[in-house]
Amino acid sequence: MIQFLLGILFLIFLSTVIAHRKEFISARTRVTIFKLLAALIGLILLYEFSTTREEAKIRRIMDAYEQGKTLICDGHEVSFETYLLETGTLSFQARERYRNIRGLIFPVASCTIKEER
User: Cys-Cys crosslink for 114: which of 11, 25, 70, 106, Cβ 3.0 to 4.6 Å?
Assistant: First the structure.
């Protein structure tokens, strides 16, 4: 999705440059378009940075779980022995044999590694 938006912005930039050479639009309009393009590109890059950081956090938590480390999710201890990692929903669900915690589901994003607390 981000690549698509950047492509659209590039096409707008390119058409503005071509219009500038042909004098289709005024200098003031061109400056406004360039400012808007710069602001949009800045927002897209900020969003991409934020998303990448969140994905790295989730990956680190999933790696710790797969290495057998204990996680803390909403005040509960989650380990490889007691919970399954559902990769489709990125959540931890209690294993069938643990009836007292059956039904507890924790999103990976809500967890932290116990050793890092």
Answer: 70
Residues 81 and 117 in one domain: yes
Together in a domain, 7 and 51: yes
Does the reported pTM lie above 0.70?
no
pLDDT digits (tens, 9 = 90+) for 82-101: 999 998 999 999 998 888 88
